[in-house]
Inverse folding.
């Protein structure tokens, strides 16, 4: 198997990254982050979410963020919405793309959405219908596809069932989330082999958190299997406030470095992206977790000393 010629990267730092920050990041910083990201060649930037502000106070300013950014014509800015109220708020903010988010684990579904998996799909049905009627692009997420901190193992059949349900609701793309970053290459290969007879793999994305350092290997394995889209966050920001111990996503620059070095086009300018990561890390007051960013920053410090 080999890597494809071109892939799409969905930058989720402003949403997945910032939803998990201990201190709420100021709105102007979020806007500066998104604007910088949107000048790096990234085509899709998940900008915020319209969930209950009490559940995720860090992103309560979603409407202000969307009003403040300078939209680039060739960049898409999807947002997360859990329900009709969220969609209403997103439409008022002028979005063109939304994502609903289910889980393959019952225990996590209850914690993240206050609902069973079946109840969450019922909640999403009118959201997806209305979004499609309004001409929006709709993505679905399935969380905990490689394991769950509350339930342990997650059967592949459960992942398949929820994924198929999201496509049946009308989602155009489904992103498979290893929310706690425990998956391995073998597990990802097995999961995609099981899904392949039921689902077109090029309509899937993978969303690998990097907790165990497997995010890059798992993402490349998914690309080799036929997936064409991956979610990452600049600087490796992120995590899920409802899944303790989960660290950030695979860092965007780690994936771009690996792909561009292997002749796979991403459209992303690595230097511009690294400058954005360094800027954001200054705003947050801590170094990025990304290996590539750390390596480049160390080299820069060395060059400055000479
Ligand atoms: P609930 O408490 O069950 O809500 O929360 P409800 O439907 O019973 O409504 C209660 C009140 O909340 C009502 O107000 C609603 O209007 C209001 P009242 O009538 O009492 O005055 N309300 C809202 N207000 C503003 N915006 C809304 C909204 N919805 C209801 N959207 C709910 C249910 C789904 C809302 C809640 O559980 C929630 O917001 N959950 C979000 C959790 C979340 O954001 N998790 C992180 C993102 S998922 C993730 O990170 C994983 C991912 O990255 C993939 C991966 O890594 O695997 C995507
Ligand atoms: Mg996530």
């Amino acid at each position: 198997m080999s890597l494809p010629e071109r892939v799409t990267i969905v930058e989720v730092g402003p949403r997945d990254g910032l939803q998990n920050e201990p201190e709420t990041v100021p709105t102007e910083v979020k806007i500066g982050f998104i604007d910088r990201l949107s000048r790096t060649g990234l085509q899709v930037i998940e900008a915020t979410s319209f969930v209950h502000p009490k559940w995720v106070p860090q992103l309560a300013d979603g409407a202000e963020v969307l009003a403040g950014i300078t939209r680039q014509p060739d960049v898409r800015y999807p947002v997360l919405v859990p329900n009709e109220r969220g969609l209403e708020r997103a439409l008022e903010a002028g979005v063109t793309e939304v994502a609903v988010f289910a889980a393959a684990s019952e225990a996590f579904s209850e914690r993240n959405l206050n609902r069973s998996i079946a109840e969450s799909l019922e909640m999403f049905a009118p959201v997806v219908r209305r979004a499609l009627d309004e001409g929006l692009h709709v993505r679905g997420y399935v969380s905990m596809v490689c394991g769950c901190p509350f339930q342990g193992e997650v059967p592949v059949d459960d992942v398949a069932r929820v994924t198929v349900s999201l496509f049946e609701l009308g989602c155009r793309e489904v992103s498979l989330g290893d929310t706690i970053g425990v998956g391995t290459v073998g597990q990802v290969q097995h999961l995609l082999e099981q899904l392949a007879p039921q689902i077109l793999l090029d309509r899937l994305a993978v969303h690998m958190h990097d907790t165990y350092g497997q995010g890059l290997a798992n993402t490349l394995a998914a690309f080799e299997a036929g997936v064409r889209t991956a979610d990452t966050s600049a600087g490796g920001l992120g995590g899920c406030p409802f899944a303790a111990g989960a660290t950030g996503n695979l860092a965007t620059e780690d994936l771009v470095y690996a792909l561009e070095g292997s002749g796979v086009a991403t459209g992303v300018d690595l230097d511009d992206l690294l400058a954005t990561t360094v800027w954001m890390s200054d705003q947050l007051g801590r170094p990025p977790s990304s290996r590539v960013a750390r390596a480049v920053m160390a080299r820069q410090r060395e060059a400055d000393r000479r």
In short: Strands lie at 8-11, 44-45, 48-49, 79-80, 97-103, 137-143, 173-178, 204-208, 229-232. The chain has one domain: 8-305. Residues 8-305 form a domain with the TIM Barrel fold (CATH 3.20.20.70).
